Amino acid sequence: MKFIDLKTQYKRIESKIQSGLNHVLEHGQYIMGPEIKTLEKQLADFIGVKHAIGVGSGTDALLLALMALGIGKGDEVITVPFSFFATAEMIVLAGATPVFVDIDPRTYNMDPALIKKAITSKTKAIMPVGLFGQCPDLDTINAIAKEHNLYVIEDAAQSFGGTYKGSYSGALTTIGCTSFYPAKPLGGYGDSGACFTNDDKLADKMRQLLDHGQDKRYHHSWIGINGRMDSFQAVVLSAKLELLKEELVLRQQAAKRYDESLSKIVQTPYIEPFNTSSYAQYTVMLPERDKVQAFLQAEGIPTMVHYPIPIHLQPAMAYLGLKAGSFSHSEKAASNVLSLPMHPYLTEEDQDKVVQALSRAVTAVA
User: Fold this and answer.
1) Which segments of the chain does DSSP mark as H helices, in order?
2) What would the DSSP string read from start to end of 120-162?
3) Contact 65, 199 (CB under 8 A)
4) How far apart are CA 23 and CA 273, in angstroms?
5) Cβ-based neighbour number of residue 328 at 10 Å
6) Beta pairing, strands 167-168 & 97-100
7) Strand pairing class (214-216; 219-220)
């Protein structure tokens, strides 16, 4: 059994990808080729924004958003400690300081009720994360940001394809950022990502920043980075984007089957009634997580832990002086969450195997 099945998907679009890759090989523009523009328009149309900017990775997308907004030394950015490390890492690389607030224990996303207490005179932005595929409460977060004259950068690395009150993740804040890492609901065959905005000036600045700050060739108006997207990745993403809506439905159907079978065994994902999740992961919470995971591994069931150490307890963040117990919900989640096999082509037969093995595991370690 596979945790994520990319081969079945590839077989559906093999000819389109091969044709597109051959076209790139023929014209030879391997970086920032015409395929990038095509993909950017497709992405912008898909989520409903004016501008989509293809970049080298989801990590680059976060850094470029911070740089475009002028966030740097002496500034603070409010985010969560329960996320992939890149969320806070890019705040630090931009020169700013991450300020953490705890998560809502039901959704694993930023608890908006904690934001105002974290705001200081140095706060410049809020960076909420759409963990596991579900958007956070962005109406409340945006309202707080507006009241305090702050930017909001949506880390939609996992929630791209999900919706919040009928609008797509990535189109809901000052700048949305996503990742097209291969395991994502929309993933390339290598690293890539995108930034989204309705602001013309921010879009123009991000396009310059991702190419070493150039506003024209060899004329550098900004200190930028090499955040350019490869043409090969644009080919792959364009082909896969055509399947995305269908695959999101298939993910949601698989999640519903899990919910119905597992709700009495473990804590299943809670999705807000106004949200749809992209189910980048299907993540349950249960005691004795490590023992359960070992049991499942012995039975041939692949699982993952996203994420076993909260960001504030990572060695690289020790300089912030935060200790265990600082963010109880994030720390509990890190110790108890387990992601099960999830992809659009997950069969009912394989799901039954997962459910049965997990039931035996929970009973065995109780």
Assistant:
1) 7-27, 34-47, 58-68, 86-93, 115-118, 138-147, 200-209, 231-262, 289-298, 328-336, 348-365
2) -TTEEEE--B-GGG----HHHHHHHHHHTT-EEEEE-TTTBTB
3) no
4) 44
5) 12
6) unpaired
7) antiparallel
**Cβ contact 75:124 at 8 Å:** yes
Asked if residue 115 lies in contact with residue 78, where contact means CB atoms within 8 angstroms, the answer is yes
pTM for the whole structure: 0.97
- Is there a contact between 301 and 319 (Cβ–Cβ < 8 Å)? no
How many whole angstroms separate alpha carbon 144 and alpha carbon 152? 10
Question: 227-255, pLDDT tens digit by residue?
Answer: 999 999 999 999 999 999 999 999 999 99
Place of tokens 């997207």: 229
pLDDT in tens, 160-189: 999 999 999 999 999 999 999 999 999 999
Domains, the chain, in order of start with CATH, read: 7-101+108-237 (3.40.640.10), 244-365 (3.90.1150.10)
Q: How many CB atoms lie within 10 A of CB 121?
A: 5
**CA 147 to CA 124: how far, in whole Å?**
12
- DSSP character for 228? P
Residue 109 and residue 134 in contact, taking contact as beta carbons nearer than 8 Å: yes
